[in-house]
Design brief:
Layout (H helix, E strand, L loop, with lengths): L1 E7 L2 E6 L11 E10 L3 H5 L16 E7 L11 E3 L10 H4 L24 E4 L2 H4 L1 E2 L8 H7 L5 H12 L6 E5 L3 H12 L4 E5 L3 H10 L3 E3 L3 H11 L4 E6 L4 H9 L1 E9 L6 H4 L3 H6 L3 E4 L8 H9 L9 E6 L3 H9 L5 E5 L1
Parallel strand pairs: 8-9, 8-11, 9-10, 11-12, 12-13, 14-15
Antiparallel strand pairs: 1-2, 3-4, 3-6, 3-15, 4-5, 5-7
Length: 347
């Protein structure tokens, strides 16, 4: 089988690797039909985070179940499934309370045993605790499948930002970030009933999409000017702020535009925050709550899928470029150079 391999900063290649097989009674092997390049993949692609050279990459697979172990009961060969970016057993203390990303089994994509999502096949250990089955009537509907694929990561992550910030009916919300997660965060805030959604970012085309997704105002300024504009639009700050970038500057912005007593829901991978520090004094003095973390997207998958299937939620416009597996390096380049919001990959 063919799979994408990380060979060092700026270099992702496609090579022949062994096809995974069922090894445990709880395993499922999936033929990947849809996957994607994630913004978090750019951290190792740019050399900003460590990753072993020669490792497989990708963590957003959707496909057809090819084989299952004897103990798997929720899916069977031929089923269309999507797989969240975190593998979960579904039975441990943390899975039972919906915190699937803290599963004690600590399984994941991107290793030799399970494969990477950017490949022709993956093996999913703990299939019953991880996989989400797509109803048969939608299993071959390409438009629906492209709308469902973001539930493997970015749509669930944007939703986690909204939930963590406490977004509800009639709220005024600020969304920091105009990448795929931030745009999905706008969709999530609208879905939860926010009355005003202020989207902050630096790319006019993405902010236009944010407006299509439900943003009522946008802010494209940078630095202190951006903070001032967002604060002005929200008459002194928002009670609900969603941080969807992860950079130290974005976290500082989110804290700065939060209203005293407000909550920042954060889901951006916090690169650079540890080095540059967090504005804890402002949080302390204004009683700003910080809530969030890595998104347990498996907890949200069924509810979000129901909305996609009934036509009230469609995050697919975040895919602005589609490539085949053999051209996945072009997908990385396009996202790295901001030529694409998110790249859909079809093995």
């Amino acid at each position: 089988m063919r799979a994408a391999i990380y060979e060092g900063p700026g270099e992702v290649v496609v090579e022949d690797v062994p096809k995974p097989e069922v090894e445990s009674p709880e395993d499922a092997v999936i033929r990947v039909t849809h996957t994607a390049v994630c913004g978090s993949d750019l951290w190792f692609y740019r050399g900003d985070s460590d990753r072993e050279e020669g490792s497989r990459v990708g963590h957003e697979p959707m496909g057809i179940v090819e084989a299952v172990g004897d103990d798997v009961t929720s899916v069977e060969p031929g089923d269309r499934v999507l797989a969240p970016f975190a593998i979960s057993c579904g039975e441990c203390e943390f899975c039972r309370k919906g915190l699937y990303t803290s599963c004690v089994e600590e399984e994941g994509w991107g290793n030799e045993a399970n494969g990477g999502g950017q490949g022709e096949y993956v093996k999913c250990p703990y299939a019953d605790g991880t996989l989400v089955r797509v109803p048969d009537r939608y299993a071959d509907d390409e438009d629906t499948l492209e709308s469902l694929l973001p539930l493997t990561d970015v749509m669930g992550t944007g939703h986690h930002a909204a939930v963590s910030a406490g977004v509800g009916e009639g709220d005024t919300v600020v969304v920091v970030g105009d990448g795929a997660v931030g745009l999905c965060g706008v969709l999530a805030a609208q879905r939860l009933g926010a009355e005003r959604i202020v989207a902050m970012g630096h790319h006019e085309d993405r902010l236009e999409l944010a407006e299509e997704f439900g943003a009522t105002e946008t802010v494209s300024a940078r630095g202190e000017e951006a903070v001032e504009r967002a604060t002005e639009l929200t008459y002194g700050g928002a009670n609900q702020v969603m941080e969807c970038v992860g950079a130290a500057a974005a976290m500082d912005t989110a804290i700065a535009v939060a209203r005293p007593g407000g909550t920042v829901g954060y889901v951006g991978v916090p690169h650079g925050v540890a080095d540059e520090g967090l504005d804890v004094f402002t949080m302390f003095s204004d009683n700003v709550t910080l809530n969030g973390g890595v998104a347990p997207v498996r907890a949200y998958a069924e509810d979000l899928m129901a909305d996609v299937l009934q036509g009230t939620l469609d995050p697919s416009p975040i895919f602005t470029e589609t490539v085949g597996l053999e051209d996945v390096d072009e997908g990385y380049r396009a996202m790295d150079e901001r030529d694409a919001i998110k790249v859909l990959v079809k093995p």
